[in-house]
């Protein structure tokens, strides 16, 4: 699943958003943060140029899902709202109709908002009619705290909806199964967490798959997951 991450700070909210994105088979096409424009006043020509560059870049990517993160709880609202406006602009496409007149088409793609809860209403307003919005808990509510589970679950749901549902044979398989089919990485997470909670011990699970490798660390009440598609071990037959 092609994913774009937009966040306020590269070393804070963007890092947490990237951690959440590793919950399933996603490829992060680009990470956009406000760090390089944070010191510029909102009404400068340079700022407008920066926004235009980001919009043009995102328009060329065509992600399946956009993840917005940023703002500690009780913190930044304007910055997150600014990100939402940038994402909203990427939904607009200018085309020419049969009569030669320009027109604007809107492509409403899924957007997961995992930022400051105080900014939710403004983000929803900024993306109104321009996105299918899914609001989850803030992935970085404090500088020393990550809260990834809600974002992980929603990213997995989007993968199931947009990618898994299109796999050949998935329809008959779902009709035969007594429970919904799960991705391997999600099932691995369930097993690791179950073993940790059941035994009260730390559980480390490593998997060198055909298309990706994963490492899972589960402790009672805690869970960490990393999946990397660059290090799969593809089996070949000559």
Which tags fit this structure?
single chain; 238 residues; alpha/beta; Rossmann fold; 2 domains; five-stranded parallel beta sheet; three-stranded antiparallel beta sheet; 7 helices; globular; disordered C terminus
Structure description:
- This protein is α/β, with parallel strands linked by helices and 238 residues long.
- It folds into two domains: 2-176, Rossmann fold (3-Layer(aba) Sandwich); 182-238, no CATH class.
- It contains seven helices and ten strands.
- The chain has helices at residues 13-21, 45-59, 78-89, 120-126, 149-162, 170-176, 184-199; strands spanning 2-7, 27-33, 65-69, 92-96, 102-106, 109-113, 131-135, 203-208, 213-219, 222-228.
- A five-stranded parallel sheet has the order 2-1-3-6-7, with helices on both faces. A three-stranded antiparallel sheet has the order 8-9-10, with helices on one face.
- Helix 3 (78-89) runs parallel beside helix 4.
- The two termini are 30 Å apart.
- 33% of the residues are buried.
- Mean pLDDT is 83; it is low at 233-238.
Within the CATH hierarchy, at the fold level, what is the topology of the largest domain? Answer: Rossmann fold
Judged by helices, strands and strand pairing, the structural class is alpha/beta
Mean pLDDT: 83
Q: What is the N-to-C succession of helices and strands? A: EHEHEHEEEHEHHHEEE
Count of helical stretches: 7
CATH architecture of the largest domain: 3-Layer(aba) Sandwich
The biggest beta sheet, please? 5 strands, parallel
Shape: globular
Q: In what range is the share of β-strand residues?
A: 15-25%
Give the total of domains: 2
Strand order of the largest sheet: 2-1-3-6-7
Number of strands: 10
Cα distance, first to last residue?
Answer: 30 Å
Fraction of helical residues:
25-40%
